[in-house]
Amino acid sequence: MKIIPICLFCMLSAFARLSRAQSVTSSVPEANPGRPTVSTPATLTPVGYVQFENGALFGQNSTEFSQRIGIGQVTKLSVHPRLELFLQSEPLAISQSNDRTAVHEGEVFAGVQSVLFVGGESRPTVSISYVRRVHTSVAPELDVGTFRQSASILLSEDLHGFHFDANGIFTEQLQSAVRRAQFGQTLSISHRLGKFTISGEVWHFSQPFEKGNTVGNLWAVSRSLRKNLVVDAGFNRGLTKTSTRWEVFVGFTYLLPHRLWRVRHGSGDRARHGWCCAQEPSPHRKSVVASVPGFCVRPSTASRV
User: Where are the beta strands (DSSP E) in the chain?
Assistant: First the structure.
């Protein structure tokens, strides 16, 4: 499909322009990506700053298509050190099946994530999230499928130079008037090597309507070009008969350098930067020098695009 190299060229051009954008002062906090792994980090973005996570994902050999490319976008805003709002969408989904090409807009999801326990040296950060679909689409889906609503418990921890993200996911899938429960588990491990961060992940989702299971192994590399700009790329290999066989993705995360509202007089530096206690990103975790269902859009859970 000729559209694939064109999209990748446009995204790489955008990376270059963002990296040459006006200099960001040292007071701007670091971006905290939730992409490109399926696992979502339990920590939140800096309070008051808008963060954009964008990417393209190419999938091949799945139950609903032979080839598919999707452009994913996630906008996040933390309104409190323990509360984050986000909107996840797929503006464009191009699929090919039986030599026929279809172009659709993807689905749109709105969600909220809240920190229950702030992590420290000896305990992980624990959060919960809830996602609700606000726009449906007829575009073919990846192996995980789509859902009406989703609830997740998220854990993030640093241990011996490695960063761990683990998610437990429950979703409600709807087909015609029939509802089914779907369960998912993800584990992502990241480690910093020089200027890059390497992430490896295993994930599993039940497929209630297919009466099967989809399992994947994801690998990604990412790099922080600036404190507020992170680029990433990687691939995912499906491991079961009902899994999307191959997925390749590339994307970036950009934190706008201007806060939306002022900090009350007398607030400390940590509050000024929007961090809550031990929420500051670890140098080992993928989301500082890298990270996501999630795009595809693997809503819920973060997207891999």
Answer: 50-60, 67-80, 83-97, 100-104, 108-117, 125-135, 149-159, 162-175, 178-193, 196-207, 212-226, 229-238, 246-255
